[in-house]
Amino acid sequence: MKKVIFSIGILFLISICAVTAQKPMRIMILDGESNPYHRIDIGTQIMKKLLEEYKPFQVEVVSAPGKDGDFSNFMPRFIDYQAIVLNYDVPTERWPDALKKSFEQYMSNGGGLVIVHAANNSFPGWVEFNKMVGVGGWRDRDEKSGPYWYYKDGKLVEDKKPGSAGSHGARLPFPIKLVNTNHPVTRGLPAVWMHHNDELYAKLRGPGENMTVLATGYSDKNNHGTGYDEPQIMVLNYGKGRIFHHTTGHDPIGMSSVDFGVLLLRGTEWVATGKVTQKVPANFPTATTVSYRADIAAMNPVPAKPAGK
Ligand code: ZN
Predict the structure, then answer these.
(1) What's the gap in Å between 118 CA and the centre of ligand 1?
(2) Element housing 81 (H / E)
(3) Count H helices, E strands: the chain?
């Protein structure tokens, strides 16, 4: 008996050491430009605060030059980071080819990318970027960008009908429903939860290659929606790289929803390591009740901006 207790004690000590020896992970939040309604300055601060709550993450903010900025010396060393969190929405031509190529190499060699909300609007004409994000909206995307992807009668549909990409209704709380409960990012989450006041993206279209939809949101026709369950949380692979794509997080109110932070952290850990070790917190929203963080909501600029894309 003593021997068993001793062995358990040793195992316990080993596991404690393993936790304390967890290697730091360098995470880059990349911003620099977006639709002004998105207030990326505040969004970046919020995401930095949230990500730093998971101790192995060491978060650095890199801001790309703006619209008329000089990109000739902008070449971040992506390779130094386990994950790039994109809080960034720009037209295709903004990045020089060498920068695009450098990012493609980083991703295909095993990099990690997290797409937040309007980051999926970025670069409509950059073919490789659209393979990474799977689906995107706005910026003149249409049937040439790829099919619409949505769930109908419980099945993922690839709809090639012509039309523009990207829409959302008024900002309201809405349920997010898991369609994959056995991915490291979603394991342990409730089957359905209420997401706090946010834009519900719909009509996204793109190549959808190597894309696994993890969760959907019902786009209600009574709120300018499609009547379909629209993909809200996706994971993808690009070469050896991993991508976590999360459509919520329009502004500090949406980002204050507890699930936004939890998914941001779990998704970032997964793209960085291929695993998720974080526990689901007790204050995670339920199927009937939203749960939001007052400290994050308080970072909302006053007066609140009207909803944009
Ligand atoms: Zn938005």
Answers:
(1) 6
(2) none
(3) 7, 11
Is position 223 within any domain? yes
Distance 127 CA to ligand 1 centre (A): 23
Distance CA 34, CA 204 (A): 18
Range of the domain at 68: 25-297
Q: Structural domain tally of the chain?
A: 1
Residue range 240-299, pLDDT digits in tens:
999 999 999 999 999 999 999 999 999 999 999 999 999 999 999 999 999 999 999 999
| Residues near ligand 1 ion, CB 5 Å cutoff | 199, 250
The H-or-E segment that residue 72 falls in is none
* Contact yes or no for 145/174 (Cβ under 8 A): no
Q: Is residue 14 assigned to a domain?
A: no
3 lies in a domain? no
Single-letter code of the amino acid located at 231: P
Q: What is the pTM of this model?
A: 0.91
- b/e map 54-80, b = 16+ CB within 10 Å: bebbebebbbbeeeeeeeeeeebebee
Alpha-carbon span 83 to 41, nearest angstrom: 20
Distance 94 CA to ligand 1 centre (A): 20
Angle, vertex CA 215, rays to CA 249 and CA 53, nearest 5: 45
What values do phi and psi take at 241, rounded to 5? -85, 155
Cα-Cα-Cα-Cα dihedral sign, residues 120, 124, 130, 136: positive
Length of the chain equals 309
> Which residue, chain included where needed, has tokens 């601060």?
45
- Coil/strand/helix, residue 237: strand
- Residue 5 lies inside a defined structural domain of this protein: no
Q: What is the CATH number of the domain that holds 58?
A: 3.40.50.880
